[in-house]
Amino acid sequence: MRLTKSTDLALRTIMRLAVTGAEPCTARQVAGEMQVPYSHLAKVAARLQHLGLIETRRGRGGGLALTATGRTASVGQLVREFEGVGDVVDCEGDAPCPLRQGCRLRMALRRAQEAFLASLDPLTVDDLVASPTGPVLLGLVGRAPGVSP
Ligand code: SF4
């Protein structure tokens, strides 16, 4: 199962915000540190905010910050939110597969997909930023090369 770029960026964003705790940083700064287009990061951040996992603090020194909910969020749930719950194979697409009414492969893939997500359920965002990831992320803070539009 391959995650979309948006799901991966959502996880990277939330990990980045987790390492600096209560200190907010701007979406442009995070985009620069993660070396992704600002426009993509802004869309992902809006979705994370809608889910209550991050918040925007206004005013001088404001920016994005992780919420308490975000800090303890389940990685599996976050992946489900971003990926949806569709099949890993498009059995019903423009040219529906003739086996779809009784396909053991489809059932096996559904079980495998659920097992994959279930393995991520117990992990929290806090878990993801334990060493060695946290120190690597902290090393990126403040390093923001040219940001793509
Ligand atoms: S063979 Fe099974 S899993 Fe593959 S497209 Fe057809 S119904 Fe879906």
UniProtKB/TrEMBL annotation:
GO molecular function: DNA binding; DNA-binding transcription factor activity
Gene3D superfamilies listed in its UniProt record: Winged helix-like DNA-binding domain superfamily/Winged helix DNA-binding domain (1.10.10.10)
Keywords assigned: DNA-binding
GO CC terms in record: cytosol
Superkingdom, natural source: Bacteria
Cofactor: [2Fe-2S] cluster
Protein name listed in UniProt: HTH-type transcriptional repressor NsrR
Organism lineage: Bacteria, Bacillati, Actinomycetota, Actinomycetes, Kitasatosporales
